[in-house]
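Dear H.,

Thanks for agreeing to be a second pair of eyes. The structure we're designing against is below in token form, covering all 1895 positions.
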């Protein structure tokens, strides 16, 4: 019905009612007429029309008629629906004429108390209808709105108590109109931002409205009326809620908010009281409304800095209430705020409106309000109320969900342009937006002091923060992680996310030691083998470092052409190899591993500095200090030959020079933009670690990152709005990360069990979102705690996860607790949905998140172990029915089902953004352990093959009838779920090994190894050994896959540095199964590395691979089966990869040295037979053959392992000498090694460096000639000073250390050290061996020396001879002599071998001395010292009491002199070698003659030895030309014959020298033929006269000895009787030879030195006088008696010696004096008888004289026998004597015998003086005396003087003339006549001389 009809009704009804209603009729008619008139409608405005109508309607409303009231209300409604009455643009400016004002006037009543509630409600409906009009028909402002609100308040407050319906209607009307007002403001702001059109709503008009409402609110609080309070709150909320987000209020409005509105609200909230009564529903509603208002204020004014403080106060007051219900309502409101991403920007984003007066308003914090909210959330999570905890978790999850939407593809609604521009302006990249400031105002600072100090340090000088710690992988650590580490552990002063390293494969007994900072010591798999060049030449090291940087700078530009990182790495390897090749001749020692590692760390440091824009200004923060840089190389666990000085110089060089930048590489290019086109060199560096690149997939290798960015459009990644969302989300998370973790940790460990699974489910969802955000925002390094909580839920121990998060202990302790928690020792058969969901999240999302945080891997591996344990128990027990769902899950099954159903629909969106679950790199070659191997699990194969989605499987399980009925999961589905989880574990490990960069991969490997160490320390617990096997297999798989995926060598080196020690410890554990598993994994890894990573030249990383095997075999009490397994593995590796082992040969030989266990001796037949029949014997031979083959082809391979190979063979040679199967090949290979070394010595300029020998110290052996020196010193008093001087110089041998050849030891290549080790080792085996192999060893030793001579390594041969061979031979000789004296066996086979080796040594010396280059290449002093030592060695052999030694000693001496004498002058121009040879011969003669005299005088020919009869016969025929008796007494021995043999052999050698040095006498060939061994005479080089002078002393000694021997008839008869000779023994032959040689020598000396003619004259005078004495022809005159008298039978040839003897007599003991008295009495008696004989001779016949003479001789012999037997009586009286007493008595007997012999000689001389000349008859009877023989021979020799030297020998003719005058012997005369023919001039002159005395 139209308005006209309403007016007509009013006219009609008012008329019907009577006079009192006529004014209504009139007013209605006026309005009706205007409406019905066309002119009126056209000329009247809408407000005029409304005015006419409202007058009539108002009158109807205020009338007391109910019918008219209804018509009036109906008319108002009709008017609002008619467009003729509503027009916005036609209304006047006066708001009193606006529709709402007119409406208020129309609906006004004088008193509202008389108006019923129904009418008032209908009126509110009219107000609501007005609010529902279109905005184009409404004119509103603050005034009219306030009027409306006043009307509504009046309506609500008038009268009595109103119903709730009435209040709601009023509030609804207010809210609806305020919403309309706010919408009009929004429209006006949108259409006309500047608000220039009259009538539009001004945004600032909301302030008066809110002011009015605040006043009413305060009035309500004062009057304690509920309605005004609720009405005001609802109205304010409605107004603020509908204001647009982009509304801009002036500063006055800002002031109103913090001065009026917020205080009013705070007054309403009030101060919390602990004992306050429970909050009513009304109060709760008010607080909820206040919270909503506060949220709206945040939305509108949150970006205004000055309003943050009051808003913080408001929310703080709201959240401090203790009433749970109130808090729940607060968080529900907050949840709504968190659900809108743009609201988060306003609350926590940057301020868009800054404060104009900083002094008035303190500088706020952008996250201040959020901090208050999170504090409330944290506090709420500590309560027991499940609903409150759940709503808090929902809030946190909502917040994370909003952040996820901001990080995806945000719209302009989610991130307005203003915020986008502001955020991108403030923060250039993700890293710069990390929150590092205070958490609120300055009064609430939470930063620790260490963190403040870190910030200060970053802004000052470039030094390392004090909290940075070094770990094993810090050389690949991003220094930015240091700051993150500090931020992650704000409440942990001792925390560290790093762990230590084991240097090389040494066993780590304490797992905690792996977390300690390693020390600066160098050991790759053991301190014994870790060699580092610690040079003292610092300057040299630094120069080498500078040269290295220069070469690197020149090399880097070449890397730009390579297309893959692997090719670049190969180029770097080649660079390191070439660098070591070129630097091989320098004084600084390198290895390619060290250069390769130094290259990487240098480039990485340069790369980081360039990334941080350190260059070119060279200012900024340098996170890696010099010590860290050095430690990154030296503590890397890799074998390096680098010094700290070298590395320090590299570090300083990189700080100064931008190596990469100078090469033309731009490292600051956008990583995402240039990913598809970046160079391989930069990718190689980023494959180690990323720097300043927090985007997704940065933990992956460059190839994987390319795949990721290929599937993600670049414009989406770099879109500014998305970047702003990422930055804001990252900043918020970095600020509240700890709060989130606190909330989650309490969420997964509820305090009550009522609905704990619901809270866990909510918490799991939160953790998933947090994990996603951490991955997207580059906060993966903070994901450790997330995984701690997830793993705790998954493994059924949520309290542990909460405790790990909340505890304040160090990270190391927390990780240790987590690892121990992963050791499952109890059966687990109950599994629920949270377990499965948590496991799914951990295994699906864990790869990249854990790749930045070591702690995350700890918990992921816990889950992996849990899955493995479940799988194993299912497989073993097959009791799948025991896996059941707990009944507590039923109450929220519907929620789970709902989530699952939703996730199925969006499963494509729920996939992994990085495609982490794909196996892009294929699988391993080996069979992998998957669920398909379990036969009973194949029942699940009924499911589709691609049905591996855990959520789908859970959905099916929940829908099963079994679960609906019993609450238990279907056994087949559950088995399939476990199988899928197991597959996820396999895929996780495979992807980690194939995709992660080195830094991330090392985190996984390190955690696997540390977990293995924990398990190895708890093997006594149940099931731990099974888990340890699983971990070991995972370690092996990760290592193998990392090798097989084509990673750079740098990656393999660092991975093995961690894996090696772990596998070693496992191989050495007590569990045989684990040990064997570890050995097998070692073998597999080594095999694949040898296959995939060929070792370049000068590298040694293969050595580290084989090191664990060596340490395994070093264990004591090793299991034989494990030992055989190791050896079989080595054999297999050698067989398959002998060409690739290279540096691995060294530890391989170290392994062979420790296998097999050596037998205890030749009687240990069990061990010997086991070795002989063992299959592993062939292993040794195969290894050696392969090494020789490879070493011969590649000298570097041989050089690296030569020392170890030699030590191995020496070990076999020493310990397995009874096992020919090992000792014989060892000897053969040693000889082959010697040949290889010889070849390398021949190419000394190209010889490789033997690094393993560099640490060897030169400790030479020295020959021990002390016994010989003592023996020679006994004759000092019996020699002239000149002669003793020659002997003393013979022993003056310089020490080997002072020799010139020692310089070879310092050779840069070290080859001579290795060669010397071989020679010395074989020599030691030779001198200690006592079995048949000794002969072969000796041949090898001498063959090696001959090899050295042949390759002209004369100097090294001298070194070996002096320092090893000769000392060894001397020691061997000493041992043989001790054995000979102890056993009386003569040495046996060892002596024969010794003779052979002596002969070979002589041959070596002959070759060495006769070589043409020896004199040029060997120092003279070294040659002299060597010849002295060799000569002394042979002298020592020649003076022994063994025939074999005597013969070999003399033979070798003669061989050296005869064959090498011609080179003596060349080798030593001073003639020193001839002096040494002559002195040595003299020493032999004198020592042997002394021995003969001692044996004869003691009447002890030596101890009887068995089986010497034949040798006695042989020696007797050689020496005395007559055999001994067939049966000899026990006193008989060959010692005296041996001494005489040695004497004669020495005389023969002297004969060679003298005869071939004769230049003035002819016919010396006859002299040589007269020698005892004439057949051995050979030509010899002539010597100088001074050498002959040295020899004359012993020749004279020999003559005197022979003369004394011949005239001692009693002694000769004694020997004849003792040995059964047929005639008296005689030394006439050798004595005659000595005399002839003496004459020849003296003659030649006299020819050159006339001063020595007197020596010849004296000797001839002695021979003539002695002849006259012996023959009795004529007694010489006193004047003509020579000074040299016939010596006694003692080595005394001078008066000095006689005096010495006399002096010694006075020192005898009383016993000796008594003996001498007895002897003197006997001699006096003999002298008396002799005098009688003399007197009778003068008167008697010649026959009587002969008889008395014979009687005298008989008595002399008898006295001699009595004197020798006299001590026996005293011995019988005194009983047994000690050896000292025996020696004392022997000395007494010797002294007495000497004195007796001298007196007998004096008596004999007196008899001869008084006797007349003998008759011819007597001469015929007397035998030919020795004097005649000697004299005749001398005359005949002198008769052969050359005529040109006759004038020099006039004195000889004068002496010889005495023979012609006094001698009657025809032979003498004839000989004299021949001599006179030589001097015809002297003979003619003598004929005319009348003086008979004149010659």
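And this is the sequence the design step returned. I haven't edited it by hand at all.
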């Amino acid at each position: 019905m139209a308005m006209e009809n309403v007016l007509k009704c009013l006219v009609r009804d008012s008329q019907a009612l009577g006079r009192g209603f006529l004014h209504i009729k009139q007013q209605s008619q006026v309005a009706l007429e205007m409406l019905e008139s066309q002119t009126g409608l056209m000329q009247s405005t809408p407000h005029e029309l409304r005015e006419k109508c409202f007058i009539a309607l108002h009158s109807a409303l205020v009338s007391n008629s109910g019918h008219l009231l209804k018509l009036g209300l109906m008319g108002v409604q009709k008017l609002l629906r008619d467009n003729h009455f509503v027009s916005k643009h036609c209304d006047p400016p006066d708001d009193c004429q606006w529709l709402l004002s007119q409406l208020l006037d129309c609906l006004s009543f004088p008193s509202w108390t008389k108006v019923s509630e129904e009418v008032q409600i209908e009126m509110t409906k009219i107000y609501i209808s007005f609010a529902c009009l279109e905005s184009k028909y409404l004119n509103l402002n603050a005034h009219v709105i306030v009027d409306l609100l006043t009307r509504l308040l009046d309506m609500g407050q008038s009268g009595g108590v109103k119903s709730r319906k009435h209040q709601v209607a009023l509030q609804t009307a207010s809210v609806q109109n305020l919403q309309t007002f706010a919408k009009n403001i929004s429209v006006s702001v949108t259409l006309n931002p500047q608000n220039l059109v009259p009538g539009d709503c001004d945004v600032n008009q909301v302030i008066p409205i809110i002011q009015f409402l605040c006043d009413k609110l305060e009035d309500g609080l004062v009057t304690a009326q509920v309605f005004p309070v609720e009405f005001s709150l609802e109205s304010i909320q409605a107004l603020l809620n509908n204001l647009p987000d982009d509304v801009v209020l002036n500063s006055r409005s800002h002031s109103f908010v913090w001065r009026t509105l917020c205080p009013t609200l705070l007054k309403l909230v009030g101060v919390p009281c602990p004992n306050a009564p429970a909050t009513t529903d009304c109060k709760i509603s008010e607080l909820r409304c206040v919270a909503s208002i506060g949220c709206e204020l945040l939305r509108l004014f949150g970006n205004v800095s000055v309003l943050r403080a009051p808003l913080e106060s408001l929310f703080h007051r709201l959240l401090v209430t203790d009433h749970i219900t109130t808090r729940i309502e607060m968080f529900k409101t907050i949840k709504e705020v968190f659900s809108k991403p743009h609201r988060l920007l306003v609350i926590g984003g940057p301020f868009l409106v800054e404060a104009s007066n900083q002094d008035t308003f303190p500088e706020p914090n952008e996250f201040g309000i959020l901090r208050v909210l999170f504090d409330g959330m944290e506090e709420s999570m500590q309560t027991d109320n499940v609903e409150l905890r759940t709503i808090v978790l929902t809030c946190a999850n909502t917040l994370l969900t909003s952040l996820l939407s901001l990080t995806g593809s945000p719209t302009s609604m989610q991130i307005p342009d203003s915020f986008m521009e502001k955020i991108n302006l403030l923060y250039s990249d993700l890293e710069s937006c990390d929150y590092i400031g205070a958490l609120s105002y300055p009064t609430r600072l939470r930063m620790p002091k260490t963190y403040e100090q870190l910030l200060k340090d970053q802004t000052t000088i470039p030094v390392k923060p004090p909290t940075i710690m070094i770990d094993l992988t810090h050389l690949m650590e991003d220094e930015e992680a240091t700051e993150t580490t500090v931020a992650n552990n704000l409440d942990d002063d001792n925390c560290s996310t790093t762990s230590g390293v084991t240097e090389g494969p040494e066993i780590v007994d304490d797992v905690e030691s792996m977390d300690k900072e390693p020390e600066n010591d160098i050991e790759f798999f053991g301190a014994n083998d870790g060699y580092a060049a610690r040079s003292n030449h610092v300057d040299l090291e630094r120069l080498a470092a500078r040269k290295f940087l220069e070469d690197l700078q020149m090399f880097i530009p070449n890397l730009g052409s390579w297309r893959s990182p692997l090719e670049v790495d190969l180029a770097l390897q080649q660079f390191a190899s070439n660098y070591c090749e070129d630097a091989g001749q320098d004084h600084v020692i390198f290895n390619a591993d060290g250069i390769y590692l130094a290259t990487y760390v240098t480039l990485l440091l340069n790369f980081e500095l360039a990334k941080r824009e350190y260059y070119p200004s060279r200012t900024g923060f340098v996170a890696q200090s010099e010590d860290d840089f050095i430690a990154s190389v030296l503590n890397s666990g890799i074998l390096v030959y680098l010094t700290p000085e070298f590395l320090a110089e590299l570090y300083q060089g990189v700080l100064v020079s931008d190596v990469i930048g100078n090469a033309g590489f731009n490292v600051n290019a956008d990583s995402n933009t240039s990913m598809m086109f970046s160079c391989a060199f930069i990718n190689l560096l980023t494959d180690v670690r990323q720097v300043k690149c927090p985007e997704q997939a940065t933990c992956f290798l460059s190839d994987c990152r390319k795949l990721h960015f290929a599937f993600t459009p670049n414009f989406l990644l770099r879109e500014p709005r998305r970047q702003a969302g990422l930055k804001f989300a990252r900043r918020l998370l970095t600020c509240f990360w700890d709060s989130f973790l606190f909330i989650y940790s309490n969420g997964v460990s509820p305090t009550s069990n009522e609905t704990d699974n619901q809270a866990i489910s909510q918490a799991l969802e939160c953790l998933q979102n947090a994990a996603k955000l951490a991955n997207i925002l580059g906060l993966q390094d903070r994901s450790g705690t997330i995984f701690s909580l997830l793993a705790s839920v998954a493994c059924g121990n949520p309290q542990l996860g909460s405790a790990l998060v909340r505890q304040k202990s160090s990270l190391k302790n927390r990780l240790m607790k987590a690892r121990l928690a992963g050791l499952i020792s109890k059966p687990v058969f109950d599994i629920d949905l949270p377990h499965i969901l948590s496991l799914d999240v951990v295994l699906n999302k864990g790869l990249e998140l854990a790749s930045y945080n070591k702690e995350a891997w700890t918990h992921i591996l816990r889950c992996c172990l849990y899955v493995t344990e479940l799988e194993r128990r299912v497989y073993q027990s097959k009791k799948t029915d025991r896996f059941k769902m707990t009944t507590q899950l039923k109450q929220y099954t519907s929620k789970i089902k709902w989530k699952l159903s939703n996730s199925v629909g969006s499963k494509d969106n729920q996939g992994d953004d990085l495609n982490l679950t794909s196996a892009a790199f294929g699988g391993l070659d080996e069979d992998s352990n998957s669920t398909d191997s379990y036969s009973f699990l194949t029942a699940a194969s009924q499911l589709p093959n691609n049905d591996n989605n855990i959520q789908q499987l859970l959905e099916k399980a929940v829908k099963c009838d079994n679960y609906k009925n019993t609450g238990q999961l279907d056994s087949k589905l559950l088995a399939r779920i476990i199988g899928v989880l197991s597959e996820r574990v396999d895929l996780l490990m495979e992807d980690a090994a194939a995709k992660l960069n080195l830094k991330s991969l090392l985190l996984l490997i390190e955690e696997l190894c540390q977990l293995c160490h924990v398990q190895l320390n708890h093997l006594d617990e149940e099931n731990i050994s099974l888990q340890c096997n699983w971990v070991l297999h995972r370690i092996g798989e990760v290592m193998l896959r990392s090798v097989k995926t084509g990673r750079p060598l740098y990656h393999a080196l660092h991975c093995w540095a961690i894996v090696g020690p772990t596998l070693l410890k496992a191989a050495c554990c007590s569990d045989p199964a684990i040990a064997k598993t570890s050995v097998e994994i070692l073998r597999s890894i080594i095999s694949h590395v040898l296959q995939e990573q060929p070792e370049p030249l000068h590298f040694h990383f293969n050595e580290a691979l084989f090191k664990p095997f060596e340490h395994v075999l070093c264990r004591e009490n090793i299991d034989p089966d494990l030992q055989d397994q190791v050896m079989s593995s080595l054999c297999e590796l050698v067989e398959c990869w002998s060409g690739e082992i290279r540096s691995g040969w060294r530890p391989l030989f170290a392994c062979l040295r420790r296998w097999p266990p050596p037998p205890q001796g030749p009687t240990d037949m069990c061990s010997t037979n086991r070795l002989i029949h063992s299959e592993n014997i062939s292993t040794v031979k195969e290894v050696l053959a392969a090494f020789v083959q490879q070493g011969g082809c590649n000298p570097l391979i041989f050089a690296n392992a030569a020392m170890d190979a030699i030590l191995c063979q020496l070990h076999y040679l020493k310990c397995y000498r009874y096992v020919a199967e090992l000792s014989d090949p060892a000897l053969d290979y040693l000889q082959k090694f010697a040949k290889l070394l010889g070849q390398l010595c021949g190419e000394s300029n190209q010889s490789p460096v033997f690094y393993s020998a560099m640490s060897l110290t030169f400790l030479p052996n020295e020959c021990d000639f002390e016994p010989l020196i003592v023996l020679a010193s006994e004759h000092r008093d019996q020699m002239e000073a000149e002669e003793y001087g020659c002997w003393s110089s013979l022993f003056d041998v310089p020490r080997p250390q002072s020799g010139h050849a020692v310089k070879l030891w310092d050779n840069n290549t070290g080859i001579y050290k290795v060669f010397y080790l071989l020679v010395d080792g074989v020599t030691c085996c030779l001198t200690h061996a006592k079995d048949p192999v000794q002969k072969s060893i000796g041949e090898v030793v001498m063959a090696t020396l001959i090899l050295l001579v042949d390759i002209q390594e004369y100097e090294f041969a001298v070194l070996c001879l002096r320092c090893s061979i000769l000392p060894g031979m001397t020691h061997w000789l000493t041992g043989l002599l001790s054995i000979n004296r102890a056993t009386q066996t003569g040495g046996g086979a060892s002596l024969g071998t010794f003779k052979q080796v002596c002969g070979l040594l002589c041959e070596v010396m002959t070759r060495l001395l006769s070589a043409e280059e020896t004199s040029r290449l060997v120092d003279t002093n070294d040659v002299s010292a060597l010849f002295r030592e060799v000569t002394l060695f042979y002298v020592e052999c020649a003076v022994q009491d063994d025939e074999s030694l005597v013969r070999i000693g003399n033979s070798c001496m003669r061989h050296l002199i005869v064959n090498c004498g011609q080179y003596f002058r060349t080798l030593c121009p001073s003639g020193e070698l001839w002096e040494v040879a002559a002195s040595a011969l003299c020493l032999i003669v004198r020592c042997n003659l002394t021995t003969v005299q001692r044996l004869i005088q003691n009447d002890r020919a030596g101890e009887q030895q068995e089986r010497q009869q034949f040798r006695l016969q042989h020696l007797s025929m050689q020496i005395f030309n007559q055999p001994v008796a067939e049966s000899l007494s026990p006193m008989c021995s060959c010692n005296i014959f041996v001494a005489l043999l040695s004497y004669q052999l020495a005389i023969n050698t002297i004969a060679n020298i003298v005869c071939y040095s004769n230049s003035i006498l002819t016919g010396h060939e006859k002299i040589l033929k007269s020698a005892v061994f004439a057949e051995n005479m050979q030509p010899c080089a002539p010597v100088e006269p001074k050498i002959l002078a040295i020899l004359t002393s012993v020749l004279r000694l020999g003559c005197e000895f022979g003369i004394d021997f011949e005239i001692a008839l009693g002694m000769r008869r004694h020997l004849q009787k003792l040995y059964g000779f047929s005639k008296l023994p005689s030394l006439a032959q050798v004595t005659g030879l000595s005399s002839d040689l003496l004459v020849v020598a003296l003659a030649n000396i006299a020819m050159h030195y006339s001063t020595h003619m007197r020596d010849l004259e004296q000797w001839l005078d002695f021979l003539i006088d002695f002849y006259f004495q012996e023959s009795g022809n004529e007694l010489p005159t006193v004047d003509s008696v020579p000074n040299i008298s016939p010596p006694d039978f003692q080595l005394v040839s001078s008066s000095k010696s006689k005096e010495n003897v006399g002096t010694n007599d006075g020192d005898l003991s009383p016993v000796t004096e008594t003996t001498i008295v007895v002897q003197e009495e006997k001699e006096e008696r003999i002298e008396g008888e002799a005098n009688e004989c003399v007197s009778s001779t003068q008167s008697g016949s010649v026959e009587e004289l002969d008889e008395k003479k014979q009687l005298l001789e008989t008595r002399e012999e008898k006295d001699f026998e009595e004197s020798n037997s006299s001590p026996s009586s005293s011995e019988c009286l005194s009983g047994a004597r000690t050896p000292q007493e025996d020696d004392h008595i022997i000395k007494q007997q010797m002294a007495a015998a000497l004195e007796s012999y001298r007196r007998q000689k004096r008596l004999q001389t007196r008899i001869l003086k008084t006797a007349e000349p003998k008759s011819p008859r007597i001469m015929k009877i007397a035998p030919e005396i020795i004097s005649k023989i000697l004299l005749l021979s001398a005359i005949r020799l002198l008769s052969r003087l050359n005529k040109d030297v006759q004038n020099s020998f006039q004195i000889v003719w004068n002496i010889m003339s005495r023979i012609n005058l006094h001698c009657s012997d025809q032979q003498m005369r004839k000989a004299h006549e021949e001599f006179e023919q030589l001097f015809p001039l002297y003979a003619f002159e003598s004929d005319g001389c009348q003086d008979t005395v004149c010659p």
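Two observations from my side: Residues 1708-1812 form one domain. The two ends are 196 Å apart (CA to CA).

Warmly,
E.
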